[in-house]
Amino acid sequence: MEKRNERQVILFPLPLQGCINPILQLAKILFSRGFSITIIHTRFNAPESSNHPLFTFLQIPDGLSETETQSRDVLLQLTLLNNNCENPFRECLAKLIKPNSDSGTEEGRISCLIDDSGWVFTQDVAESFSLPRFVLCAYKFSFFLGHLLVPQLRREGFLPFPDSEAEDLVPVFPPLRKKDLSRIMGTTAQSEPLDSYLHKILETTKPASGLIVMSCEELDQDSLATSNKVFTFPIFPIGPSHIHDVPASSSSLFEPDQSCIPWLDKHETRSVIYVSLGSIVTLSESEFLEIACGLRNTNQSFLWVVRPGSVHGKDWIESLPLGFMESLEGKGKIVRWAPQLDVLAHKATGGFLTHNGWNSTLESICEGVPMICLPFVWDQLLNARFITDVWRIGIHLEGRIERREIERAVIRLMAELEGEEIQERIQVLKDEDLCIIWIESFNGEE
Ligand code: UDX
């Protein structure tokens, strides 16, 4: 471990699994370069501090009721969190900054705040303390740039598209298709709050000191090259965060089922399809049953993560037909949460049926695991298009959650020539140097 440089970085993750993982990974990278780390976090989805004994964790109240924490409306949750957290965050930051300014010494001096673009009040707070703020972009950078254009497209009358199922490309947002953007925008009822939130994200990101991006030239070349049309500050593409050489520790909000690994050990190389839809996606009961039957009909081994509560109206997997697990004769395993990085790195894992959250997508690329794309919302639709239409390292289900479609896609990926070709292409992408070490020059100041 390198010597502490006696500078402190404060990080404030958005309380969603897909945002907590990259920010804690970034914290580990910065710690390994000598920074002291303080994480301010909400009570909702609080990270497990005991997994990171070298960091200081400070919890602030978030004002979410029990019902609000269980809502499936992420936009509503983010709006409430932004409304409720400003004062507690300001007070917490004031306490951290005050002792240092009084002492007038360098010791523990706070270099900067790093938080998620989804926090729209932190820029003002940071400015009031003259603290540089860096924004962490947990999406593919081309999505980050593109999604900020949506309110403008709507204002100018380009949206909504007359045909919400149109297959042609959105000119300002390639390789997204019009039908994808229609899904991203959601219903008309959501358009006003979504546009207003996106507008605030843009306006509170522009004055920041810089943007840290979980991507790299190889995956985001065009958008990185054109970003100076939107932002004047420096952009730091750090590559997939988990490939930096920092000690592993879990930032999972759920307890990973470690029995996955000995189960995989018993399987042949690249013979298992791993299925996980991340931490937010939910399914109707009939969609869940279609996936179950599709997987069973492939006769391939599968490891499937079903989060408790992710099937509407059900606790877990009780709606599976009687005798379903027995009928698999050991070929299927269902868990509540998996140690995903270890599963993807396991030699038995040959494919990943994924919702294409950006973390899962990067993790799969870094482990050279081809994908079956089943995106549901938001950036997942763009990530899936890059997987299938640009890098050609996966198969798209086009939203068809039907047993025959799932069975066919798994067979194509795991047992046919098409799958071998996809495997070769992802290996080439994996072998590119997907990481830009900007961190050596980062001192957390403008
Ligand atoms: C959310 C959004 O849904 C996604 O679109 C956006 O890109 C990031 O924020 P999430 O749905 O949780 O993220 O998906 P993803 O980005 O893939 O992150 C999930 C993380 O949880 C990954 O780092 C993955 O390794 C981890 N995970 C998932 C586990 O550790 N175990 C599991 O069983 C499933």
From TrEMBL:
Keywords attached to this entry: Glycosyltransferase, Transferase
CDD domains to which the protein is assigned, alphabetical: GT1_Gtf-like
MF GO annotations: UDP-glucosyltransferase activity
InterPro entries named in the record: UDP_glucos_trans
Source domain of life: Eukaryota
Family from the record: Belongs to the UDP-glycosyltransferase family.
Protein name: UDP-glycosyltransferase 76C1
Species: Cardamine amara subsp. amara
Classification of source organism: Eukaryota, Viridiplantae, Streptophyta, Embryophyta, Tracheophyta
